[in-house]
Design brief:
Elements: E1 13-23, E2 27-31, E3 39-44, E4 47-52, H1 55-69, E5 83-92, E6 98-104, H2 112-124, E7 129-133, E8 135-136, E9 139-140, H3 149-152, E10 156-157, E11 175-176, H4 181-192, E12 197-204, H5 209-214, H6 241-257, E13 262-266, H7 275-290, E14 294-298, E15 313-316, H8 321-328, E16 332-335, H9 338-341, E17 357-358, H10 363-368, E18 377-382, H11 390-397, H12 400-409, H13 416-434, E19 456-457
Parallel strand pairs: 2-4, 6-7, 6-18, 7-12, 12-13, 13-14, 14-15, 15-16, 16-18, 17-19
Antiparallel strand pairs: 1-5, 3-4, 3-5, 8-9, 10-11
Pfam family, one: Glyco_hydro_20b
Keywords: Glycosidase, Hydrolase
GO molecular function: beta-N-acetylhexosaminidase activity
Length: 458
Amino acid sequence: MIPLTALLPRPVSITPAPGTCRWPAPVEVRAADLPAEGYRLTIRPDGVLIEAPDAAGEFYARQTLRQLIGPDAFRAVPLRGTAELACGTVLDHPRFAWRGCLLDVARHFRTKAEVLRFADLLAAHKLNVLHLHLTDDQGWRVEIPAFPRLTEVGSWRRESMVGRHDGPERDGRPHGGFYTGDDLREIVAYAAARAITVVPEIDVPGHSRAAIAAYPELGGGRELDVWTSWGVSTDLLDPSESTVEFFRTVFDEVLDIFPSEVIGVGGDEAPGATPEHGKFTARMIEHLHARGRRAHAWDEVLDTGTALPAGTVIGAWRDETQVARAIEAGCQVVACPEQAVYLDHRQADGDDEPVPVGFVRTLADVHRWEPPPGVLGAQAQVWTEHLDSVRRVDYATFPRLCAFAEVVWSPPDRDHAEFHTRLAEHHLPRLDALGVEYRPLDGPRPWQRRPGVPGRPR
């Protein structure tokens, strides 16, 4: 029997009661006056009562019930028919409205099936935003019928940099893929059934070399290939009127596919950008707001000096000082600092970590991180330059995403030792049942290492 205290993320309150409930058991659902996405789960000897104010709250109550049934409930087909549930009441609701995870499918493409699986993993941790980074220098991943070369040319590159270095080494292996409009509509609907909003991102005016390779006029007529390097390209969009009209058409297609109120426009890492590039990004933001949506942009847009429409969402990634700047500018803020929640960064010092890039960010570091005050929420980032398979995504993401989920859902009085015990004894077996190839708590398995592949530690 799984104790009520084994839940992850940790709920607001737990009230044990005598007795047990034999599962399967009747489940009754009632409406309740609780905070948005909250629930009250009452387990009694004769059955289970779920009280929730909305569909998301009921979904999260069922996720909690699934955890209490045991790891078998996380398998595709349960292998055991019954379980004993501890009686009691779990009262719970999220701390933040935006509990997100970015998945970069531009650098290394993830198939539709893999994205659906990733949505399942977010849902199991009560995360509610899947931010899909769909375009970058190394690949364009969304079909735009008006501009077929975006996927015919821009969706694949001839090879990729091996690891992270300053030399010419490449793997000689073509890489590519893209989603049709219907693929993305399916992903959106699948995620919505799991209380997740999919926020798409089309990154402009930098991170646009794949688009320029497809349509050279977007870069002022320069003939370029889809980039085979990692890092920050200096190739920017030409901020001309024709480029503005091109991307208005692109974003209109994105709006037709994605019902999300928030749509990402990028705006980051544009070396050599001019004031005209800042105006270009502002015009894309204005276009989205004129269509009744809101833009998500990275915090560099605050440097352009251009006024942003009310309701613009800023992803504060460079450091937490950007949060105050964005709030002062009248924006909502999602905290996603590189120093805390970039899950592609290495998890330990030493040679065992595969392709060791960025800062050391341990499981404890993520769990102890506290989002700054005044934010809409927070988001973990899974950038995939060095994550070239779903196994590598699993390794980098879990179990650190479990810690992040607790940060954004649970009350702030966290005890890492207690979390570590809950994770090791109860939650890792759930991940095992789901088939997640996470990083073991004592270090990588032999096949999870990448000896000889260069990184770039910081």
